[in-house]
Amino acid sequence: MSDPARETEVEAKARRGRNIALALGLVIFVVLVFVVTIVRLGASVAK
Amino acid sequence: MAMTEAVSTPAGTPKAAPKAVRAPARWQDFVQLMKPRVMSLVVFTALTGMVCAGQPVNPVLGAIAILCIAVGAGASAALNMWYDADIDAKMRRTRGRPVPAGRVQGADALALGVVLSMFSVMLMGMALNWLAAGLLAFTIFFYAVVYTVWLKRSTAQNIVIGGLAGALPPVIGWAAASGTAPLNAWLLCAIIFMWTPPHFWALSLYTSEDYKKAGVPMMPVVAGPASTRRQILVYSLLFTPLCLVPAFTGLGGAGYLAVAGLGGLVFLLLAVRLFRSQAGDASRQRNDDGLYDVRAGAKDARNLFAFSILYLTLLFATLLVEHLMGAAPLTLASWKLLS
What we know:
The complex is a heterodimer.
Chain A: H1 9-46
Chain B: H1 27-33, H2 36-52, H3 59-83, H4 85-88, H5 106-127, H6 130-154, H7 158-167, H8 169-178, H9 183-205, H10 208-214, H11 219-222, H12 225-244, H13 254-276, H14 299-325, H15 332-338
């Protein structure tokens, strides 16, 4: 892992991109789990 | 490991890390680790399996199932790239991949593969059913461990047995939709399984120098081009009739029968031409730079390789269209009525 104090602009940009992608991935996973819960719960309630 | 030395360490970095990390890893490199083109084929066959199951699926859950299968395929690809970094670095076709090129560290590729494997299997189990999740977990394990770690470097039958990993997505899709995996689902699996050897061996006939350099025991490297061409023909003779079977089990209709029959004839013709050719022999003498710079002798191999992709795509696309349009399958019973 590079030292943020010494990293170049290119490295900083790449790190920001990775962080945003990781955050998006986690948010998508949380949303998917929420959606699955609602859909399956809805189906069970309908029965 | 018959052909090469052991290549990985439990610590997460390939033993012979080909190059030091040079450029910072971008998020696009991690996408590349997941082999998006292979992923798209997996999604297509899985979707076909899901539609052919004929069970009503909540569209949201159906989309999540396809996403899980795609991510699972991407996870196994990342694990494959982590483990194979040393041999990828030796082949022209693969040396630009993120790990051998030094853009992504092996440990990061391993972490991505493990995390995505767990997420995809868990989500599949929660959203659809645990049969589909179990099949997905087995597929990832089979590709990453049985094929990549064991078969690929130890036997010329690597892509024959390892082909099961690429053949399972329609079964996973079917199981996701219906909670079952009947014979028709396994028939789709068998078609892809039997398609794999002629497809990959045709490719390896004109890339065998690369595999030889990397110490991967592909069939042309181990048994020679003549034996490979003969085995391609044998597998083609088994594969093409198998493609007709869905038309008689209620899975495919008249359109499918026509596509499978006509395409099968072309496939066989190309396999016979390849058998009679000198494909693969010329690669031992040449010294070209382009990976797909096909010399005269290997043209027949390239033709079969290209048509194999088209043929499989057409087969599954026809099944998909027939089932989406509700076309009546041409079953054995309907044959009796017609005759």
